[in-house]
Amino acid sequence: MFDPVSGRWEHAGSPQRAASRLPVRVPRRTVVVAAAVGAVLVAGAVGSRLFLGDDGGEPVAGEPQPSVSAPVTEPEPSTEPPSETSSAPTPTVTPTGTEPPAGYRTVDDTGGFTIAVPEGWDRTESGQGVFYNAPDGQSLLQVFVVREPGLTPYEALSGVSADGRANKPGYEETGPRRVGGEPGAPADAAELVYAYDRPDGTRRKVVDRAFTAPDGTHYAVLVAGPDTDWPRQREHLRVALQFFRPGTS
């Protein structure tokens, strides 16, 4: 029989021809290692999507994003109002016995939580969560629900960290670290502080807190602003968390 591949005549029982028909076996260890590496990469991508937006700003993390809530997308957590924001009813001021500090207001957000935000910051909403944006467009506060099953707050922020190191110019970070010992802080909480250079030449600094609320919901609350404003971002986060309560509607 003539074999057009080899250009030779071979008998049907030829050892060479029989060998060419043998299936190629991939060592089982190679398959297992490849699968494990793939799983790690996917987990990191999910965590980063929770918090990050598409413009190089905040995200946390993590696109879910949708589910911290991560927020760090990154896509990247958008530090600016996402281009696809949708209008939503203006949150109402919540009358409470304990008022927030001067310059802040407490709101019952239609996203299902209560929080304190700076006066004058406007609300927008997108697939990456709820945003409260400063009038000058340079700072924001983002709240995101982390919905990925089994993803802990620390793991979610680790994904944001990995994405930042890979994709954000001039990226520097502190953390992620587990948070404990703070008055009223959830037992299961983690925090990541990072800074990076934006396309417009400015430098942004972000503090991102992920935690499990008493009702079992995983949230990420992120505050971003110019690096020169630090530590104002941390103060905004402190007040936001002090008055944060899940379960409103």
Q: How would you explain this protein's 3D organization?
A:
This protein is α+β, with helices and mostly antiparallel strands and 249 residues long. The chain has one domain: Mog1/PsbP, alpha/beta/alpha sandwich (Protein Transport Mog1p, Chain A, 3-Layer(aba) Sandwich). Helix content is 22%, strand content 29%. It contains four helices and 13 strands. The chain has helices spanning 15-20, 28-49, 153-167, 232-242; strands at 2-3, 8-9, 92-93, 104-109, 113-118, 122-126, 129-133, 140-146, 172-178, 189-197, 203-212, 218-226, 245-246. A seven-stranded antiparallel beta sheet has the order 6-7-8-12-11-10-9, sandwiched between helices. Helix 2 (28-49) packs across helix 3 (153-167). The chain is globular, with a radius of gyration of 25 Å. Residues 9-24, 26-57 and 59-96 have low confidence and may be disordered.
Per-chain topology:
Elements: E1 2-3, E2 8-9, H1 15-20, H2 28-49, E3 92-93, E4 104-109, E5 113-118, E6 122-126, E7 129-133, E8 140-146, H3 153-167, E9 172-178, E10 189-197, E11 203-212, E12 218-226, H4 232-242, E13 245-246
Antiparallel strand pairs: 1-2, 3-4, 4-5, 5-13, 6-7, 7-8, 8-12, 9-10, 10-11, 11-12
